[in-house]
Structures are given as C-alpha cells and as structure tokens.
Amino acid sequence: MRPPLPPQQQNFTPQELQRLKALADKPQQTDQTIILPVENGAPVLDSDKDAHWRRGMSDDELRRLRRQAYGQGAYQVPSSDQAAQRDFWQDMPRRDMVIVPIDRDHGRRIDQPPQFDYPRDVRVERSFDDDRRVMDYGGQIVIRGDDTQRFAQFGRPPIYEEVGNGRVRTTVIMDNGDRIVTLRNRYGQLIQRSRIDRQGREYVLFFSPDLFYANDSQPVTYRDPGAELPPMRLMVPLNQYIVDVSSQENVNYYNFLDEPPVEPVERVYTIDEVRNSARIRDKMRRIDLDTITFATGSWDISMNQAGTLKRVADAINRILHDDPSETFMIEGHTDAVGSPESNLVLSDRRAEAVANVLTQVYGIPPENMVTQGYGEQFLKVLTYGPSQENRRVTIRRITPLVRPLETSEQQ
Q1: In this predicted model, what pLDDT tens digit does every residue of 229-241 receive, in sequence order?
Q2: Average pLDDT over residues 191-207
Q3: Using CA atoms, how far apart are residues 221 and 54, in angstroms rounded to an integer?
Q4: To 5 degrees, how large is the angle CA 101–CA 193–CA 289?
Q5: Which one, 50, 91, 118, 213, has the greatest CB density within 10 A?
Q6: Distance (Å, rounded) from C-alpha 22 to C-alpha 28?
C-alpha cells in the first residue's frame, strides 16, 4: 500500500520556480523544507521525504521542529571528517574506541553460511534465490542482500568461522591475495570489515564500537537513530550537496566526494543504521548517476553507459589512493511503476550492478562499496507515473559515519 503523495503544484510558474531556486541557493537562511526547483520537485533531503510519507509529518511541523532545534542560528558545517566527529571523541572513553585486529580471536571453521537470530522486532517477509530478503524492521520494509557473494565474484568462496558469543567471521580471499574479513554478531549485524593485504597490513573499512563492546547475549531491538534528531537544516547550497552527472559537467568529483559531512556526527553508526536511516545518510553529500538508465525490469548496464562513470570512478580511485579504508554507499532508486516490493528488489540489483561495473571496468575494490536498494521510497519527482528522473543510482562517501577517526589532537 503506497502512501499518498503530498499535495503538489502540477505547473509551477516561472516565479515559483525562481523562488524555489533562491531557497535552494541559500538554504541556511530558511527553516522551510527545501524543494528541488523543477516541475513536481520533491524535497531535497531524503529524511524530509521520509518524514512526510512514512511518519506523516507536515511541512509546518517540520518547520516548527527545525525552529525549536536551531532557533535563529545553526550549526557550523564541519571543516573535516575529524572535526565532524570531534564532539563524541571528547565524550567517549578512549578504551571504547580501540579497534582490535579483526583476526585476533581464534575461529572454528563451519561448513555452511550461518543462520542468524534476528532482533525481536525484525522479521523476514520474503526470500529470493540470490540471497536477497525483504525484511520488516519494526514496520519499515527494507531489502537486504549478502555482499559476501559480490566479493566472491572476484576471489574464492567465502570461509566462515565462529569466534564466540554467536559472532561469525567471514573471509573472502581475493584474486590479488588480499583477504576481506567481515565480523557479524549473532543477529547478523555488521560489526567490522577489514582488508588484510599480502603483507599482513590491516585496513579497517568500518567499525562499530557500540556493537563490538556490546553484550551479545542481550536481545536487541531495531530503532532508527535519526528519529532522535531534529529535522536537518541544510547549510550548504544545493549544488554543493547534490551533483547530477548529466547536467553538472564541470564538477570536480574528487573534491566533491572528499568533502566532510554537512553537519556534525553524533557517534559512529553501524552500516545497517546508515542503510536504514535517511536522516543519517543525509549528513553526506551525494552524486546522482542519472546517466545510467535501465530497461524496464532490467539491471543490465551497457558498456556505453558504463563509460559515463569514468570521471566519478577516477575520483573514487583517487580518494582510495589517499586512504584505502574509505567506504562508499551505492544506492538504487526506481520510479513508482510496479509494486513496492518488486521495486525494492530491482533497485537493489541495480545498485549492485553499478558496484560491479565500478570494480570490473574501473578497478574499484568491491569491499570499499556497500550497496542498498530503496525502490520508490525517495522519489526525486513527485509522480506515480513513469519517470526517468526517479530511476537513478546515487553514490555517497560514508566513511565519517561508520568508522572512528581520531582528531589531530588525539593522534
């Protein structure tokens, strides 16, 4: 059952479009919801769309909550990833942020993929042959895939080990000899992922202190950490927050992707929290790969379209040259034609297809990418009809959200 779209202006006048553009150019001057300045444009922030359509909040309510949180002032946009994390580093005991080697504990080899105990408010609605599952996270319907199989395309079959307290360590040995090692708790939640190269050097891609130091025997429940935060007040111009590949040709993608979060980061989040929370993802700028189009019901990418990814891929590779531990999220989106469940699955396969092209054609290590499909949940243009603008894949760098980064004072 789809939620109704909010009331929309079918034909914006030139004056109305100009007003929307003025707000998008200087969003810090208003507590209104920023709307994409195009015909039937949706809210710019995915978290505002989520608040409208999943939580039933009105523009007036969002505006009131912004005014309560920020008053007439606002936060400072962080100057670096480390600055974005500075507040919680000051409050967190140093011992609780220590990252231990992922292969420190001895493991017991198991022959089959593990079966996890899901949190009590999480259940599997439907499973697919390619290891994808449609799941209900406390009333939020999501799609989950097993990225271990994506890694194994470029290496050997995964090795599974039990390492105590219900935790499972998965290792994929890549064709170049590197080991991609992932640690999950008994509920399947991702605690840590590291790359260990042939010389034994470990690069931590993401790490959740909350999960690592948790009591795994206690039952957990799902919650959206973004629900505790006020609606975001965007403090950077729209063209510094979203890049459309097809229309913004002169963008320096390296500089854009390397930019820090647009607001402070409260703590290190888990990968699943980032996947499930539009409010947390909105902290990072995004690139809309609107040059990648798909045939109806397909996730195949032609080589001609793959070529349009070159400049973005070059930027990602340059960032990884600077820091091999960076993590990028590849998000798939569809229009609203078809059922919500089929669109979830299709968007997830399309996100994975883009990640595979970035690896096969441009050499981006698969483990530096996390994929996630969102189906029709975050429409860019407000229509239930066919829409090329809504059929898109998005890239964000999410490292500052999922890995502790010491400030210069603590190094």
Answers
A1: 999 999 999 999 9
A2: 96
A3: 19
A4: 150
A5: 50
A6: 11
